[in-house]
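Inverse folding, one chain.
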């Protein structure tokens, strides 16, 4: 009997998915609840499990886009599990016997051996790594996403000294490659364009002296890590400061819902994370109720799931305010784009030693530019600037975060 497996419903707004990677191939025997493939929606990657034991028959190839509810494969439940191969009988060895050489693997590569999945190919392309230089750990040597994420580009070979024979000029490549946009990338593109076209977006800037926070981290980081088993980073300070400022300026924590403004008495903070397949924004729920250690643990947990493409749709929806940190990539200043339906987003940037005036004297301080992009339809200039000044004050006097003043 053939059991048809359909693409399950994974979210109200998701109508189609892409087959990212088959973990089992056509004709394989699978056990019930065994993961047989990974599917990619416009928001997340999720696994498809076998609904029964039997022989698998695939009906879609990797890279195919299929609608939710469509048949993606079938399982022949009447097939029996393959019997374990009996061990080869040992032959008696004699003094004059010649040992039989083991068959060497064929040098001719097949489809699986050394072939990356579409997801792995994208990662390798971004890194500029040839698939032939990566050892695959998947079935029959298949290169998986983990192999691609862990792969490192080989050091360039030292140039040979020029000789009379090799003195001809080198020519640059003019090859052009093309690849299909992922569902996630297409959705990000649509949302960014919509945010620019459908909001009255404006950005205000300020700068923060990071020395007080850096002094606290330097003094207490070992004690903090020993007690809480997590490092003390900048994100927890920014999250706490933003939550305090949102209490004073609730319009920054609001949505436009039709002709109404929807206010929130909680702070669900979205953290923008660069994942292998694109930008994702997992949400820290009720961040206003968490301490620094709890925030750091939640950031670490969500970032880890993002890097492994394991975030669920629930973990990426419902945020009321977003933080994005371009500073980790070296950005000095930018104008972040609002994450709809939210009304504001705060951008962090890199920390640079700059001369500033403190108590009438010029001193070098670690300074960071911060940017707040906001929807001017419901957030006035006074509120946006005051909100950013409040965040600056709390970060430059972090004891206030502990005291709630």
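Residues assigned per position:
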């Amino acid at each position: 009997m053939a059991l048809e497996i359909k693409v399950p419903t994974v979210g109200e707004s998701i109508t189609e998915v892409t087959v990212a990677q088959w973990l089992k191939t056509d004709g394989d025997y699978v056990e019930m609840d065994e993961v047989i493939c990974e599917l990619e929606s416009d928001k997340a990657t999720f696994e498809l499990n076998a609904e029964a034991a039997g022989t698998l028959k695939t009906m879609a190839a990797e890279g195919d886009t299929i609608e939710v509810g469509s048949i993606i494969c079938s399982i022949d439940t009447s097939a029996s599990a393959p019997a374990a191969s009996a061990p080869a009988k040992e032959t008696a060895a004699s003094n004059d016997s010649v040992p039989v050489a083991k068959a060497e693997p064929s040098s001719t590569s097949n489809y699986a051996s050394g072939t990356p999945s579409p997801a792995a190919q994208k990662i390798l392309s971004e890194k500029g790594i040839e698939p032939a230089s990566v050892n695959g750990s998947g079935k029959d040597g298949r290169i998986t996403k983990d192999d691609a994420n862990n792969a490192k580009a080989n050091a360039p070979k030292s140039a040979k000294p020029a000789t009379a024979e090799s003195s001809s000029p080198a020519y640059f490549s003019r090859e052009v490659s093309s690849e299909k946009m992922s569902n996630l990338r297409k959705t990000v593109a649509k949302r960014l364009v919509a945010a620019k076209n459908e909001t009255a977006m404006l950005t205000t800037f300020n700068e923060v002296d990071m020395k007080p926070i850096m002094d606290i981290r330097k003094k207490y980081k070992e004690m903090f890590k020993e007690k809480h088993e997590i490092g003390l980073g900048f994100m927890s300070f920014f999250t706490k400061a933003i939550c305090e400022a949102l209490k004073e300026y609730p319009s920054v924590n609001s949505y436009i819902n039709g002709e109404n403004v929807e206010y929130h008495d909680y702070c669900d903070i979205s953290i923008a994370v660069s994942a292998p397949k694109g930008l994702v924004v997992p949400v820290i729920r009720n961040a206003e109720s968490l301490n620094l250690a709890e925030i750091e643990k939640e950031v670490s947990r969500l970032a880890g799931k993002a890097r492994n493409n394991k975030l669920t749709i629930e973990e990426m929806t419902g945020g009321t305010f977003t933080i994005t940190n371009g500073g980790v990539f070296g950005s000095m200043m930018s104008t972040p784009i609002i994450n709809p339906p939210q009304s504001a987003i705060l951008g962090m940037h890199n920390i640079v030693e700059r001369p500033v005036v403190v108590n009438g004297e010029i001193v070098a301080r670690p300074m960071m530019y911060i940017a707040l992009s906001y929807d001017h339809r419901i957030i006035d200039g006074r509120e946006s600037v005051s909100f950013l000044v409040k965040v600056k004050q709390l970060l430059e006097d972090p004891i206030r975060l502990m005291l709630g003043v």
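Confidence is low (pLDDT under 50) at residues 85-111, 155-160. Residues 211-228 form the longest helix (18 residues).
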